[in-house]
Prior knowledge:
Glutaredoxin, 2 domains, 4-stranded mixed β-sheet, 5 helices, transferase activity, Glutathione-S-Trfase_C_sf, Thioredoxin-like_sf, transferase
Amino acid sequence: MIDLYYWPTPNGHKITLFLEESALAYRIVPVNIGKGEQFRPEFLAISPNNRMPAIVDHAPACGGAPLAVFESGAILWYLGKKTGQLIPADPRGEVETLQWLFWQVAGLGPMAGQNHHFGQYAPEKIPYAIERYVRETNRL
């Protein structure tokens, strides 16, 4: 069984999609980031950077104690290795998959997040910031 520490964010959705596709048994442990629950000590023990999502695998393939994993890209890679699904077995396919995963978590994801933040939530509309993140999101 996998515990998914989750709030409905784009990064959280990535993990639920993988878990559903792979048919792994999991339960959602809600962490309400609007109420600051990601700063609670029990969550920080699992995700020291206080970010969504995180998992605890109670039956890791390596055996032993439950294994905590944080950061969406690391979780996806871990689950892919655990299940043997969605990561090609051949080295070229594996590298291509890893490149696209890194592209998403280090490129598109952060730029889209900044695009959304400056366009929707920033208390002051800063045209330069909005234009920069819209342009970069479109480029990616």
